[in-house]
Write a structure and sequence with these properties.
Layout: E1 9-14, H1 16-34, E2 40-45, H2 49-57, E3 64-71, E4 84-87, E5 97-105, H3 109-120, E6 125-133, E7 146-150, E8 156-157, E9 173-176, H4 178-182
Helix pairs in contact: 1-2
Bound molecules: inosinic acid and magnesium ion.
The site of inosinic acid (IMP) has 16 residues, from strand 5, helix 3 and strand 8.
Length: 184
């Protein structure tokens, strides 16, 4: 029997197996880049929570983990360009090597804002890691240093990504059936 969430999924874009394999590779790449540097993983909530949990275990660096929560005054499925901090850093990041962990880089508004914000807070370096990259909709000149998968211009859910706060616990990346959106 398929779950109530699975019945809403039109198609799978990235399977659980593909996610696992790619996250393992990304962990190794970050390990090689940051060995001996004691980086700070900085997850952007809420969407990155699943990815952060898997990535930090795939990357056995001496490191610590911090979170920031932002929202982008969004309408349903696209960003408005204005970013608001809902939960701020709980520690001084002066001189730290930051690994920003995002679920998806879409318009670039969120990461353009965060990069600037962390620079003003004195970060020594900023590396942008995103699970998904949707380059077709970029409005700001922000590029990932490391991206898991490129996705087409479709609204995706799962592995932390939501639609109206739901579907974050779908274990793969998928696209919802059109009728799910029209019911909201
Ligand atoms: P940006 O500021 O437009 O780059 O968008 C970043 C944020 O918008 C992401 O961190 C997501 O939370 C959200 N977002 C953008 N595209 C999608 C999508 O396809 N599915 C779910 N959330 C998305
Ligand atoms: Mg997000």
């Amino acid at each position: 029997m398929r779950s109530e969430m699975e019945r809403d999924i039109l198609k799978v874009l990235v399977t659980e197996e593909e996610l696992k394999a790619r996250v393992a590779e990304m962990g190794v790449e970050l390990y090689e880049k940051f060995e001996g540097k004691n980086p700070l993983f900085l997850g952007v909530l809420k969407g990155s929570f699943v990815f952060v949990a898997d990535l930090v275990r795939a990357c056995q660096l001496k490191s610590d983990i911090e979170f920031i929560a932002v929202s982008s005054y969004a309408n349903a499925t696209s960003s408005s360009g204005r970013v608001k901090i809902n939960y701020d850093l709980q520690q001084d990041i002066t001189g730290r090597h930051l690994i920003i962990v995002e679920d998806i880089l879409d318009s670039g508004n969120t990461l353009a804002f965060l990069k600037e914000y962390f620079m003003t807070k004195g970060a020594a370096s900023i590396t942008i890691v995103t699970l998904l990259d949707k380059p077709s909709r970029r409005q700001k000149a922000v590029y990932p240093d490391l991206a898991g998968f490129e996705v087409p211009d479709e609204f995706v859910v799962g592995y932390g990504l939501d639609y109206a706060q739901q579907y974050r616990n779908v274990p793969y990346i998928g696209v919802l059936k059109p009728e799910v959106y029209s019911h909201k």
